[in-house]
Amino acid sequence: MRFEVFRQEQRKDYHVHVGDVHAPNAELATQYAQVMHARRKPANSLWVVPKEEIATVDSDELGVEMGGTTQKEYRWATNYETGEMAEEIEESQREQEAATEARDASEGD
Amino acid sequence: MLAPDDLAEHERAAVETELRTLADDQFVAAERYIDWQVRGPTLEADIAVANIAQDEYGHARLWYDLLERLGYEEAELLWERPPDAFRHATLLELDYAPGDWADCVLRGYLYDTFEKLHLESLEGTSYPPIADRLEKVQGEEAYHREHTQSWLDRLTEGGEVPAAPREGGEAARNASDEPVRRLQAALDRLYPHALTLFEPTEAEQSILETGVRTRSLADLREDWLAVTTPFLEGLGLTVPEPSLPDVRGRDGSHTDDWESLYDELTYTYELLGREPAKLMAPPDEVEG
Amino acid sequence: MDIEEVKRRAGPREFGPGDDMPREYREAATRMIQFHANSEIMGALIERPFIRQAPSLERKLAVSAQVQDEIGHGQLLYRAAEQLGVKTREEMLDELADGRGKFLNCFHYPLHSWYELPMIMFFVDGAAMRRQASLKRTSWEPYAHAIDKICFEEGFHIKHGEDILREIATGSKRDQELLQAAFERWWPRILQFFGPTDDQSTHGGFAQSVGLKTMSNDDLRNAFLNAYLPKAEKYGLEIPEYPRVEYDAERDHYEIENDDLDWDEFGEVARNEFPTGREQIEARARRQEAVEWVREAITDDEADAGVTGAAAD
After folding, report:
1. Which residues of B fall within a CB distance of 8 Å from C57?
2. Which of the listed CATH numbers 1.10.3470, 3.30.70, 1.10.3910, 3.10.20 matches domain A2-53?
């Protein structure tokens, strides 16, 4: 059976997909995952999931962008002109600006 | 407590012999594990077995290092040492047929179960340097046990698991279930040699009197039988009657397989004629 | 996607399992990655006897770890190839066993003793690292991803190989003579590692046009020679007169006299017809056959069969 391996670097991080292992069952899969994905750089936790249990949705299947196609600026702090902001509001706005820049940059490729 | 730089004659003999036994067992176990590298049944199993081999070499290194701190050099402990001065159980030196994965997992199980008991009996040792290193070793050994048990469970899953042990082993030996048949064959062959794990060295009395080890090998054998017998029977295997082989391992008598293995592993050392290379800093030691 | 679009878009990590790649691309990529994966396995095979033979406890650890890494790299690479939807891992491993799977020329030759080990562990692995570094920019993203991990792990392989070389090179006169002999035996094979010169290479042109391959054979060989010729000299190795390798200072380029190399032998090796290469393939196949019972015992009825990846229906 094939298991996909997800690795959590440190406590409270998200588990990230790092590869797969072929194993007869989940027990051996967790043991293999430890050797293959947490030996040199110790991880905090590993998940192994049988590949056939993973349901996926891909953007090109949908034919339509994930997240919708009508205007959504109302969800962005950058949409609003209200003068001075509290610190934490400013930070939220900066994060959204960075995300927009990143998305624009990747779309431009 | 015993002090490394102030050991009486009989204390030194006890410490050294126990260390040699520990180290030699791990070293030879590792040698047979590495045979499986690039020959494992799957890529993942291959990688896992290599991991175990490296752990075992790592453990051997920790125990040989304690001997080096008592004045020995690596060459004296391994490469220049006569083969009949090695103290490992004969279980660990035996060769096996190509493809005999049943041997790998069964041998691993028999040895790992012993090692757990052995290390536990050292937790209360009177020799602090041994105590200091136990946790590291025990941590890795836990993974080895999991691995071999997972494999034994998985290999015997397909066949019938009887509620009670079968008579005479006929059923298991003739099982149409190939994994069970092979596991039984491996058990029949390995079991007498596994019992040499408990053969005392000439220093056994001293080791117990000085407190280097808190339980005798004879006692450990009872515990080992109490764990392994039900487990193996639960897998549908028949545990052979206890009997020892002609050679005993810990007294320096070994099989021909050891002679061949020893010759192979010292070949390049002899060819080069150089001091064995160290690549890492010596293991940490907590003073105490 | 048609092949023209692929060529237009070809760039580092541009394509992944979500893309509908044309057959030509998928087959070329599979061939390349499969060759690489097979080479990891066959490289591990050639080195493994030296775990037992390593002349110190710590060298045993290092050689065992190297061999283990190589199997791990094979695992990653077969997976990266599988995702192209042309062959499964099982199919590729079967091809390796039955003699259809191709792999690096150097692994078709035997390693007789510890003296020869640095030839593989330093020079050949060093050449492989050079090529791998260039593959970080390959267009098939899963391949590039696998390369990241491989590059991360492999640094110590070459450094340990160099340490072994250093130990021998600083030994007795006899050690040095044996080392030189080993070097002379392996040098032509190492020069052939990167394949024929570009104009004689069969698949190279297409692979480069779609971004799979990012550096030409000649450029890779040059980069390798730049780094490793000085190393050879550092350890007292004499570069043999033949095959002729001339340094052209103006172009900062090593000219290799191609006719001095045995390309007929290379061809035999590449077709898996060279005797010692066949022995290696068969030795591995026998051992894998011997554990077939284990694979049968652990395979469920529904599992593992079939093609995966982008082209799977």
Report:
1. 27, 57, 60-61, 64, 74, 78, 276
2. 3.10.20
